[in-house]
Amino acid sequence: MSYFTETRNVELSCLFYLETNLNSDWSGTTILKTFSQVYHKDTALPIVCVRLADTASTRLEVGADTLDNRYLLIIDLFARSESQRLDMADYIKNKLKSGWVHYDHAHSSGSSEVLTRDANGRDMVTEFVTDSRIDVGETMEAKDQHRHNISIRVRHTDA
After folding, report:
1. Which of 14, 16, 45, 93 has its CA 20 to 30 A from that of 73?
2. DSSP letter assigned to residue 57
């Protein structure tokens, strides 16, 4: 087995959580983790793109080497209309505010495509950093017409 770092597990756990919820409540939504996939000509709206942007680390106590990591997750929404943009943004914020199950992910031996996941605590939102419409001006790509950005600080806690 090839196990992933906590940083990667935070990103994948959020992606899995949103994907699971959006598939049941917003069928037809594509969930991705890279912008190159978003702008691929065959990717239809609505799209939710989740990625981990950075990690802010502080020491838990003076003289210790244990860090308290806070992860900045960025969620970009690409909607079909302004109404859908507003509704999806509210839906996603309401889903994120309670946190989600943190999974330790790994590649099964012999397969780089199949992920295994074991529950290991929770990921909790400590701060909603941004929640706003993205205005890219008049010369915009069609997918950017109804775009929204939500960024959150997240902390992993053990069970």
Report:
1. 45
2. E
